Structures are given as C-alpha cells and as structure tokens.
Amino acid sequence: MKKIYLSGPITGRQKDEYRLHFATVESNIRGRACANGMEFSFFNPTSLRLDHLEAPKWSDYMKSCIAELITCDGLAVLSGWQCSRGSRIELMIADALGIPIVHMEAPVNELDIVCLEAANAEIYRYWTKLCSKWAVIEVSDEVANDRSLVEITNRFLDPHGFEYIEK
C-alpha cells in the first residue's frame, strides 16, 4: 500500500481550521483512490503527538515529520504551502529524494510559480519550458504565463496523480 504524506501550513492557524483542511484533503484523496480500486495510507502531521516531550518546539515536530516523510511514496501539497516554512522544507526534501509531489490545489498566480522554483525544480523547469513554447508563437508574456499555469495545473494537479507512483 502506498503511503502519502500531507504537507501544508499549520503554524499560525487555528487548530480546528488546519485539522479540517488536512482531513478534507485526505478524505478527497481516499475517496478518489477508492473509486479507482486503490488504497493509500496517510501520514497527517496534524495527528502527530509528542507527548513524551514536556514542551515540544517547532523543530521537534519537524524532525518527526521528516522522519515520516522519507518513508512515504508521495507528497500531497495543500494550498497555503508557500507561507509555511515546514512545507517548503518538506517539498525540498521530497524533490531531492525523488518522492513524487502532487499539488492538490492549483497555483493561483505568478508568485506561486516563483515559490515553486524554490520548492520543486521539476515543476519550475516545466513552467519555464511552457512559457518558452508560447513565446515562440509570439503571444504576450501575460498570455504565456496564463496558458502555462493552466497546462501546469492540468499536469501536476491530476486528481489521480498518486496512481502513477511506482511502489
């Protein structure tokens, strides 16, 4: 069974808000997988408990999360990851280790693409290639960026993206 790591912003958000966000994404992936005869297990960092520590720090949580991440077969990225130091670190690690990354929500603007450059080199290279393709047929930069975002969304936000992960 493939194990999927959920990555998204936690720090600075209300506990109910981030738990609902993570649970909703997990439920959506699980439902789509079930509809396709697949089954995944998940690591959801919102359920991580460090009760053995008196006052766990952010770094304690990240150490435990990274230990889990390296055992996973895929990384599901939730919206808002750009504002999360932990998510950005998790994306860099997954990218460096060749762990497939599926963005569960579309990038919404060029700022998101700039963040992708730092977090996932494969997606950024693909985006620049798409922009170059549109430039060849002499469309404006704005149209090229918009068309590239649409294409990258279709490629990297495949709702069944994890079915392609080889175990």
Walk me through what this model shows.
This protein has 167 residues and is α/β, with parallel strands linked by helices. The protein has a domain of 114 residues: 3-Layer(aba) Sandwich (Rossmann fold), CATH 3.40.50. Helix content is 53%, strand content 10%. It has six helices and four strands, in the order E-H-E-H-E-H-E-H-H-H. Strands 2-1-3-4 form a four-stranded parallel beta sheet, sandwiched between helices. Helix 5 crosses helix 6. The protein is globular. The chain starts with a strand and ends in an 11-residue tail after the last helix.
Mean pLDDT across all amino acids: 79
Shape: globular
Protein structure class: alpha/beta
The CA-CA distance between the termini, in Å, is 8 Å
The largest sheet, given as strand count, sense and whether it forms a barrel, is: 4 strands, parallel
Contiguous uncertain segments of 5+ residues: none
Helix content: 40-55%
Which percent range describes the beta-strand content? 5-15%
Radius of gyration: 17 Å
Order of helices and strands: EHEHEHEHHH
Classify the fold: give the CATH topology of the domain at 2-106 and 156-164.
Answer: Rossmann fold
Number of strands: 4
Q: Give me the CATH architecture of the domain at 2-106 and 156-164, please.
A: 3-Layer(aba) Sandwich
- Strands ordered across the widest β-sheet: 2-1-3-4
CATH class label of the domain at 2-106 and 156-164 = Alpha Beta
Q: Helix count?
A: 6
